Amino acid sequence: MRLQDKVCLITGGGKGIGAATAIAFAREGAWVEIGDVDTAAGQETAQAIENELGKRAVATHVDVTDARSVARWAADIMGRHGRIDVLFNNAGISAVGPLHEIDQSLWERVMAVNVTGVYLVSRAVLPIMMDQKSGSVINMSSCIAALGLMRRAAYAATKGAILSMTKSMQVDYAPYGIRVNALMPGTIYTPFVQDYIERSYDDPQSAIQGLKARQLGGELGTPEDVAMAAVYLASDESKYVMGTGLAVDGGVTAGKFS
Ligand SMILES: NC(=O)c1ccc[n+]([C@@H]2O[C@H](COP(=O)([O-])OP(=O)(O)OC[C@H]3O[C@@H](n4cnc5c(N)ncnc54)[C@H](O)[C@@H]3O)[C@@H](O)[C@H]2O)c1
Q1: Number of CB atoms found within 10 A of residue 200's CB
Q2: How far, in Å, is the centroid of ligand 1 from the Cα of 221?
Q3: Class assignment of domain 7-186+222-247?
Q4: 155 is an active site residue
Q5: Which interval of the chain is the signal sequence (predicted)?
Q6: Which of 45, 79, 150, 171 has the most beta carbons within 10 angstroms of its beta carbon?
């Protein structure tokens, strides 16, 4: 058990990568706290964990853009467990289109969820970890922070910001025994990507084939591929891994020459 009795928070744990990670953390012995705006999805993940492993997960309605909702969540968790060992800042939304077609409200929304959300949840949790003198924070960036992709400039700006924040956060919190790392997934087949494909292409099936062809291994990633990287960063096995962006991208940033 690599996370035995660690208290692990996951934002956006209702679906996709967050849901797979919640299950993977629980299988490693963690107490899992899911915060999601989609209450039903969060509860579904918690129920799946309960069915398999007993009551090790609690789902709470949390909007990462709302400081009060976040502060209440952190306080409730402290009431339940008295400590927080792992924070996975995973919640995120997409924004698709060339920059001049992104209207300001979408720009502000994607910044609010993806960047301000990481700030607000981290701000609520870090003082607790500082008191404990331990903790692991995992921020969800993307391979798009290292690689240009079509029609994604606004989204890419948020993921670049998260990678940069991660490195400077690591410098500030290392003296407190806190590690801060980022995940940089490639194309992972989740509701998020399904939605993007359906909204962007007339022929979603051929779009999926095109995306697969871009991967060195010829396949899209699964939520579990990223979840296992999150388990590693959450666990003490990664105790010497600090301030890094870990690519889980099927080689897409490694390059392709034919
Ligand atoms: N799927 C990919 O290919 C991919 C690649 C790189 C990075 N990512 C990142 O991984 C993260 C998860 O992506 P996914 O594909 O699993 O997405 P998803 O849409 O399947 O799940 C995201 C979850 O976040 C929740 N959420 C959205 N806004 C929220 C808010 N304001 N407060 C709390 N919860 C909120 C949603 O309700 C949902 O349950 C995102 O940050 C995304 O940018 C995804």
Answers
A1: 13
A2: 15
A3: alpha beta
A4: yes
A5: none
A6: 45
